[in-house]
Amino acid sequence: MIKREDDFQQRRSHLAQLSDEELRSRFWALTEQLVDPLLQLAKENTSPAIERSVLLRMGFSSLEAKTLVDGCAERNLLGHGAGNVVYRYSIHANLPVRVAGLALLAPAKMDEAARLFGGDK
User: Fold this and answer.
1) Residue 80: which residues within 8 A CB-CB, separation 6 or more?
2) Nearest Cα residue to 87 out of 108, 63, 43, 57
3) What single-letter DSSP state applies at residue 90?
4) For the domain that residue 90 is a member of, what is the CATH number?
5) pLDDT digit of tens for each residue in the chain (121 aa)?
6) Does residue 9 belong to any structural domain of this protein?
7) Domain total for the chain?
8) Cα–Cα nearest to 102, from 76, 59, 64
9) In angstroms, rounded to a whole number, what is the distance separating the alpha carbons of residues 116 and 1?
């Protein structure tokens, strides 16, 4: 086994003069640099599987969630989030979220929801 040279003191020389508070601030600044691109990616991208998962957590069955996601995908609404589509439609129609989601299983109602997001159907 080859013994590794201990260069810890050399590698930490640029940090040696920092106080605990300065080290903490530097740590969180570097952490933000790492995490910000991941958060941006998550905000800007989704998939049908993710949207189905959201709807399942909202209380819809897997078959209902698949139909809702397919309807959103056909109308280019997935970028808004399928759960958001159901929620906004529930406000628009003054219905409970679950009832609104079940109503959106009908293509005509999904077209109505698409208009809420500027869709032309």
Assistant:
1) 72, 117
2) 57
3) H
4) 1.10.8.1000
5) 888 888 888 888 988 899 999 999 999 999 999 999 888 887 778 899 999 999 999 999 999 999 999 999 999 999 899 999 999 999 999 999 999 999 999 999 999 999 999 865 4
6) no
7) 1
8) 64
9) 67
